[in-house]
Design a protein that fits this description.
The complex is a heterodimer of chains A (329) and B (309). Chain A is an all-alpha fold and 329 residues long. Chain A has helices at 8-13, 16-33, 64-73, 75-85, 103-139, 141-156, 159-170, 173-181, 186-197, 200-213, 217-224, 229-237, 242-266, 277-291, 296-322, 325-328; strands at 58-61, 88-91. Chain B is 77% helix and 0% strand. In chain B, α4 runs parallel beside α11 (273-301), α9 (217-254) packs parallel to α10 and α9 (217-254) packs antiparallel against α11 (273-301). The radius of gyration of chain B is 24 Å and the shape is flat. Chain B is built from 11 helices and no strands. The chains are: A mainly alpha (329), B mainly alpha (309). The interface between A and B is large, with 45 and 52 residues.
């Protein structure tokens, strides 16, 4: 294609900040993904004798019952863990909470949920946003005007508050039961809702890009050769969108993760005994106002959120710079 | 004239938004099987029947919708609260709205009072260590969720050094930590925007003229450079107001402040649909009118935007 220009990837890696962000994100994601393989107590195992202990690591034999509970859900991972670390576990690395649950384990297991909701909600928002923007930009004219006017109105509605109302209604036992019958548990409802309100920026960006793309010579040529609109949209326009879409996606992930933490913190997102970083921060604050000095309960979940979100923001900005259309010309 | 047409357009949009939000909340309430009052655990049948009669829930859905809207538009009657006995949503709002507004105003003051000087300092010391420190802190502040910040503040200034109350509402001291927790992330954005704006302006010829007159550096910034550099900050205030209002949900919860946010969260958790949708409507009104005020201020500040005649 265009020779002599370093690839986007190379330009991204040239910056120290984006290398650090990638490393950090990769590390966090790997640790969270590997949580079942790591020699940590189960996230929900209560040990009242060791409640509210400050961080102090100690190796001890694992509780076979807790291990069995993890094993039933993740048999392969626990097999790996047994092979690597034997039957011991590293307890109290980041301290314990008021019920004696291990914080290090809870932060990693909570990260699985937070990252999962962040990625899936972003995926939902990308699907809706790209489809909407593609349709509006490609249709053009009145249809485009109408569709974008709808986006403008939705933009001005503080959707966060409406979403709280929506979630309040969906908490109703009967409705939740009907959703479960459709195969939607609370977590999927959560990322569908979050993704469902986060697609507006994506739609605007994609539509703008499509308006530029439909005037390019190759789209004109394809049209002159008699290609159908669907074929042009999928074959010629969509593949040229990935740059802007990737940037928008990277910047959407931290927003939706923050939103999940926000809702879970308020008790409207992930529900205990499920764990997410928002839940952990909320429990940490509760302990804090009750007992005072248990700083680790708020500091470590907060740190996990802070590192992940700032790495994502940094990466998004760096990607935007690396893909800057002014540099591409 | 031009301004008036635009204002009329904005008002029309505001009405459209309020209509969308109130229709959405009506639809959501009706989506609950049995309607908003159907909860045998909390209401005895006689009361439920009389409530249903009072709010016309036996009427067809279309008529109910019209009545719901006309109650709001004509009498600003948002209905009863289902969980707070003997309270109407209006009474709850009358008590909690001033609290939330006070907290929000203090947070906005914190955001501007810290963000603007920090941005100016960073711009004046561009490229030095002070600039690096301020901008580094601002970048971190952007990614710090307000509840984590609130936790850290409580840990430091209420437990480590017991200077300020942990939670509650009443005295000015009670407001300090919540306002800082709520305002600080927005101070970070404001500092970044103001710094960028100032750096753009500081290269201009008329700034050199001001310097050549012998004005001290800070006076050049305060008197000459800040007005155009404030424009991006002003346009950010709209989203900032929306962000502060949504952040207050969390901060009110953390510090046990009896504002609208606490009521919204409680009503959402307790299926108090009338209260929840009333509070959502008021929040929408606040966010939209905040945006409107900010946009008008922007036009007044920037002579290039107004019409020449």
């Amino acid at each position: 294609m265009n020779t002599g220009r370093p690839s986007t990837w190379a330009r991204l890696l040239r910056r120290k900040g984006s290398r650090l962000a990638l490393l950090l994100l990769g590390g966090i994601a790997l640790l969270c993904a590997a949580a079942p393989c790591l020699p940590l107590p189960p996230p929900d195992a209560m040990q009242p004798a060791q409640a509210s202990q400050a961080p102090s690591a100690g190796w001890r034999p694992a509780d076979p019952r807790g291990l069995a509970a993890v094993q039933s859900a993740h048999p392969a991972a626990v097999a790996v863990r047994r092979a690597l670390f034997g039957d011991g576990e590293l307890a109290g690395l980041l301290g314990t909470d008021g019920l004696g649950r291990d914080l290090a384990s809870r932060v990693l297991w909570g990260g699985r949920v937070s990252l999962q909701v962040g990625l899936l909600a972003t995926l939902v928002s990308a699907l809706v946003g790209v489809a909407f923007g593609l349709a509006a930009g490609y249709a053009g004219g009145r249809v485009d005007q109408l569709m974008m006017r709808c986006v403008d109105v939705l933009y001005s509605v503080p959707l966060l508050f409406v979403v709280i109302l929506l979630i309040a209604v969906l908490r109703d036992e009967q409705l939740a039961g009907r959703m479960r019958a459709l195969g939607l548990d609370r977590l999927s409802v959560l990322y569908l809702v979050i993704g469902g309100i986060s697609w507006l920026t994506m739609a605007r960006i994609v539509r703008g890009q499509v308006l530029l793309l439909v005037r390019t010579p190759w789209v004109l040529a394809a049209r002159a050769l008699g290609a159908t609109p669907t074929r042009i949209a999928c074959r010629h326009v969509l593949p040229n969108l990935w740059g802007v879409v990737v940037v928008a996606l990277t910047l959407t992930v931290p927003r939706v993760m923050l939103f999940e933490a926000f809702l879970s913190f308020l008790g409207l997102g992930v529900e205990p005994p499920g764990v997410s970083w928002g839940i952990l921060a909320s429990e940490g604050l509760e302990q804090l106002t009750l007992l005072g000095a248990a700083w680790w309960l708020i500091a470590f979940p907060g740190l996990a959120l802070l590192l992940t979100l700032s790495a994502l923001n940094l990466l998004g900005d760096a990607l935007r710079d690396a893909l800057d259309p002014r540099l591409l010309r | 004239m031009n301004l008036l047409t635009r204002l009329a357009g904005r008002m029309a949009l505001l009405v459209a938004i309020l209509l969308v939000v109130s229709s959405a909340s009506f639809l959501l309430m009706r989506a609950v099987p049995g309607g908003p009052f159907d909860d045998g655990r909390h209401l005895d049948p006689a009361i439920r029947a009389s409530l249903q009669r009072r709010y016309g829930l036996d009427a067809p859905v279309g008529e109910q919708y019209l009545r719901y809207l006309s109650d709001i538009v004509l009498r600003f009657d948002l209905g009863p609260s289902l969980r707070l006995r003997d309270y109407s949503v209006n009474e709850v709002l009358a008590e909690s709205l001033p609290v939330s507004l006070l907290l929000g105003a203090c947070a906005l003051l914190v955001a501007l009072g810290i963000g603007l000087p920090a941005g100016a300092l960073a711009a004046a010391r561009r490229g030095r260590w002070l600039d690096t420190c301020v901008m580094g802190a601002a970048t971190l502040g952007l990614s710090l969720p307000s509840f984590v910040l609130a936790g850290l503040l409580v840990l430091l200034f209420a437990f480590r050094w017991p200077w300020l109350p942990v939670a509650g509402f009443g005295t000015p001291a009670h407001l300090v930590l919540p306002a800082v927790a709520l305002g600080l992330p927005f101070a970070a954005s404001i500092a970044r925007l103001f710094r960028t704006g100032l750096l753009e302006v500081l290269g201009e010829d008329w700034i050199r003229t001001a310097r050549a007159k012998g004005l001290p550096g800070w006076l050049v910034i305060v008197r000459h450079a800040s007005r155009p550099a404030l424009l991006p900050v002003v346009s950010y205030l709209g989203p900032a107001v929306a962000g502060i209002l949504s952040g207050s949900l969390v901060v009110e919860q953390v510090f046990a402040i009896p504002g609208m946010g606490s009521h919204l969260v409680d009503s959402a958790l307790n299926a108090d649909y009338y209260l929840a949708s009333g509070v959502v409507l008021v929040y929408t009104l606040l966010v939209c009118s905040g945006n409107l005020v900010v946009d008008l201020t922007y036009e007044l500040l920037d002579p290039r935007l107004g019409d020449p005649a």
